[in-house]
Design a protein that fits this description.
Blueprint: H1 6-18, H2 31-50, H3 52-56, H4 65-90, H5 96-104, H6 121-142, H7 148-176, H8 180-199, H9 211-216, H10 224-242, E1 252-254, E2 259-261, H11 267-274, H12 281-294, H13 296-313
Antiparallel strand pairs: 1-2
Helix pairs in contact: 2-4, 4-7, 6-7, 6-8, 6-10
The protein binds benzoyl coenzyme A.
Length: 319
């Protein structure tokens, strides 16, 4: 049988995507689809790993044993998501060490949100409520991603993220119903985390270089602006229930559409953060680099152990 040309292979591939048939690791796929997925999934994995740092900062200072246990579990979940996602990226033909080096050298991106500091305990509430809330909004759509492995990973991750969102909202609820100082802490955290949370969804659709192709390939199902709007529509009533004020003077409900109009995001701040100039970018990188160096002996020991085991199972491999 005559081999198919690249154009024919691409047509078949797109027909499969259009018919909602999942693409699996061993299926033929265009190189550009593969690279887009490696880029997105690895950025997502890095975000989970770097995302442990702002919250990890509060593990030793959680206000009670119960809060500490919950926070520990949440941060461990993020580590699990990161490892899970690195494995998903590896199925596309890239090895983990390369991905880790891209993060540590500053070449790879991770979510802008994790370059802001966690100044008070209320920030842990705001992260769970807003950051995990925004992450779920985005990731529920990714559960229908055309790459089957990523979609299935998202299914599981979303379940854990919804627990994270609930724990954050509950922290905010307790603070909002507490003393005037606690209410003020909750309001201050909302003031600082609101706009960075909206930036998590990425640039406006008109300025998003990858969206059009990713939507065609059904990697992305819903656009950056639409997800951001859905997040605002869901979150503003939650803030009202807490009795807190969203820090946006332009925010108003459009009674015709039932959707909120919100003010302009500071895109200059967003661009500076993703260029590496946010309040904590350098600190985050230093922490990851130190963790990598300090963990060298663990990796060596693990590799030696697995090589020894492999030899035991197959002694003919000995050189
Ligand atoms: N921050 O064309 P666009 C979590 C980049 S972690 C930094 O719209 P795309 C959690 C973008 O990468 C949740 N960079 O791109 C963990 C691209 O750069 P390159 C993280 C951003 O990929 C711990 C350029 O801007 N979630 O849940 O079509 C504790 C142009 O953008 C950002 C994910 O990673 C940003 N905010 O769409 C708590 C979800 N936004 O590659 C919670 C998976 C954009 O050209 N990722 N950029 O250099 C996605 O869904 C998509 O990648 C995005 C961007 C919607 C983020």
């Amino acid at each position: 049988m005559q081999a198919l040309s690249i154009v024919e292979l691409e047509q078949r591939f797109q027909a499969k995507v259009d018919a909602e048939i999942k693409i699996e690791p061993k299926d033929w796929m265009p190189d550009t689809y593969r690279h887009t997925l490696i880029r997105q999934i690895s950025q997502h994995a890095h975000s989970e790993i770097v995302g442990m740092l702002p919250e990890g900062n509060w593990i030793t200072r959680a206000p009670s044993l119960r809060r500490k246990l919950i926070l520990l579990a949440k941060v461990q979940d993020e580590a699990g998501h990161g490892l899970y996602l690195y494995s998903a990226a590896e199925t596309l033909g890239i090895d983990r060490e390369t991905l880790v080096q891209e993060l540590l050298s500053g070449k790879a991106k991770y979510s802008s949100i994790f370059n802001y500091p966690t100044l008070t305990w209320a920030d842990i509430g705001a992260i769970g409520w807003l950051v995990d809330g925004a992450a779920i909004m985005n990731q529920v759509a990714l559960c229908r991603c055309s790459y089957g492995l990523y979609a299935r990973a998202m299914d599981r991750i979303c379940k854990e993220e919804s627990f994270h969102q609930r724990q954050g909202y509950e922290i905010m609820l307790v603070l909002a119903q507490g003393t005037p100082e606690q209410r003020q802490m909750a309001q201050d955290a909302l003031n600082r985390w609101w706009w960075p949370s909206l930036m998590m969804f990425g640039p406006k659709d008109a300025d998003s270089p990858h969206s059009q192709q990713s939507m065609k390939w059904k990697i992305k199902r819903v656009s950056n602006d639409e997800l951001r709007q859905r997040f605002v529509d869901i979150t503003v009533p939650q803030a009202e229930y807490l009795g807190l004020t969203v820090p946006d003077p332009e925010l108003r409900l459009d009674t015709n559409t039932g959707r909120y109009h919100y003010g302009e995001i500071d895109w200059t701040e967003f661009k500076e953060i993703i260029k590496g100039n946010g309040p904590c970018n350098r600190q985050r990188m230093r922490t990851r680099q130190k963790a990598y160096t300090d963990g060298e002996w663990v990796r060596e020991a693990a590799m030696a152990h697995s090589q020894k085991r492999a030899l035991k199972m197959n002694p003919t491999q000995a050189t």
